[in-house]
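go over this record:
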Amino acid sequence: MDLRHAGAIPTTGLSALQGIDDALGLKKGETIIIHGASGGVGTLAVQFARLRGARVFATASGKEGVDLVREMGAHAAVDGKRPDVDDHARRFAPDGVDAILALAGGDGLERCLSVLRPGGRVAHPNGVEPTPKKRRGMTLIRYDGISGVREFERLNAAVQAAKLKVPRPGLQGARAPRRGSRARKDYPFSA
C-alpha cells in the first residue's frame, strides 16, 4: 500500500482491529455480527474478522452498503434497518453468535442483540449512540481506539496479512468496476 492510500486507514483501522482483537478477542471458528459494517471502521472490521477465521454476518446501510460489505468479505449481509434482521442472523447462526461489534446503535442493534448466545461478547467504540444496553448473560465492552508505535505495527501487520481493501473516506457503498472495465478514480482500492 502506498503512502497516499495508507493515510485513509490509521484511525478507522485501529478502531476496527482493536475491536476485533483486543475488545472481543475474536477466534477462529467464532461467529460475529458486525453491525454498521458499511462505514469506514466496519469495512475494515469485516476483513480483520475474516483474517482471524471468523464467520461474519454484517449489517449495512441500504443495498449499496450490503453489496460493499459482501465485497469486503462478509459471509452474509443484510440492511440493518430491516425489521427482520434478527431472523436473518438466526438463519446464519442458529445457535446464536459469539460476538457483536456494534458500530451503530438503535433498533437494528437491539434486534441483533437477541441473537447473541449466552456468554457472548458485545463491544463498541465509545461514541456509538445510543449505546448498547447490558443484558443478562452478555459481556459488554466499551473501548477507545488507541494509537502508538506498537498499535501501528500491529495494524501494519494485519493490513499486510489481510491484503486489505480500503474504501476511501466518504465512498462507502461505492461499487467496484467490473473486470475489464475502465478503473474509476473514486473506487475503493486494494492494498
Q: What stands out?
A: The chain has seven helices and eight strands. The two ends are 5 Å apart (CA to CA).
